[in-house]
Specification:
The complex is a heterodimer of chains A (114) and B (114). In chain A, the strands form two sheets. In chain A, strands 2, 4, 5, 9, 10 and 11 form a six-stranded mixed sheet that branches. Chain A has no helices and eleven strands. Chain A is 0% helix and 56% strand. The mean pLDDT of chain A is 92. In chain B, strands 2, 4, 5, 6, 9, 10 and 11 form a seven-stranded mixed sheet that branches. In chain B, strands 1-3-8-7 form a four-stranded antiparallel sheet, with no helix packed on it. In chain B, a hairpin with a 6-residue loop joins β4 (31-37) and β5 (44-50). Chain B contains no helices and eleven strands. Chain B has strands spanning 5-7, 10-13, 19-24, 31-37, 44-50, 53-57, 64-68, 74-78, 87-94, 104-105, 109-113. Classes of the chains: A mainly beta (114), B mainly beta (114). The interface between A and B is medium-sized, with 25 and 27 residues.
Chain lengths: 114, 114
């Protein structure tokens, strides 16, 4: 089975940097995803890590440590439009059946204030 | 390139009724997954279809069933609706081979069961 923990809510100031943590336990691992979800909208893909280290994509970076079962999403130069829920999701080890199912955490609701 | 589209966007049913939700995959994607997202929670995997066959299923009872058609579009059927089935139902498409296998979500169908 899989278990994912992330903070329920966070608040940060416009222009600042915020780090959203995700810890997990899993019996198999084939990648960790971060998705952004604005209220009432579909989740949209932000980043993917399968190897340890930092992946940078513009204002967003994601880090993974497989040995520690830990990831974080780093958002720089926060903008008001970054107010959303951020979902950490695990993909289990490839089973051979071709299943790409993701197990999501409950999400972290980020509020960006002026 | 068209994205994932779902219909209907909102619907209200009563306990015991049946519902069918529809999804058109993103162009070029051959795998479709369905997720249930309760209010304040992350999406939960229901099942996945590839080549018109179910090839992965989450912890949902048999009254949740689905279909995938030759054009990769899909349906989710729920029988004997219960109050707890009230949720946002998300369809996601992906390509089985190549890339990260990231999911592309539709806007969802919000089901209310009274």
């Amino acid at each position: 089975g899989q278990n994912i923990d992330q903070p329920t809510e966070m608040t940060a100031t416009e222009g600042a940097i915020v780090q959203i943590n995700c810890t997990y336990q899993t019996s198999g691992f084939n990648g960790l995803f971060w998705y952004q979800q604005h209220a009432g909208e579909a989740p949209t893909f932000l980043s993917y890590n399968v190897l340890d280290g930092l992946e940078e994509k513009g204002r967003f970076s994601s880090f993974l440590s497989r040995s520690k079962g830990y990831s974080y999403l780093l958002l720089k130069e926060l903008q008001m439009k970054d107010s959303a829920s951020y979902l950490c999701a695990l993909r289990a080890a490839y089973s051979g059946a071709g299943s790409y199912q993701l197990t999501f955490g409950k999400g972290t609701k980020l509020s960006v204030i002026p | 390139e068209t994205g994932v589209t779902q219909s209907p966007t909102h619907l209200i049913k009563t306990r015991g009724q049946q519902v069918t939700l529809r999804c058109s995959s993103q162009s070029g994607h051959n795998t479709v997954s369905w997720y249930q997202q309760a209010l304040g929670q992350g999406p939960q995997f229901i099942f996945q279809y590839y080549r018109e066959e179910e090839n992965g299923r989450g912890n949902f009872p048999p009254r949740f069933s689905g279909l995938q058609f030759p054009n990769y579009s899909s349906e989710l059927n729920v029988n004997a609706l219960e109050l707890d089935d009230s949720a946002l139902y998300l369809c996601a498409s992906s390509h089985r081979t190549g890339g990260t296998g990231e999911l592309f979500f539709g806007e969802g169908s919000r089901l209310t069961v009274l």
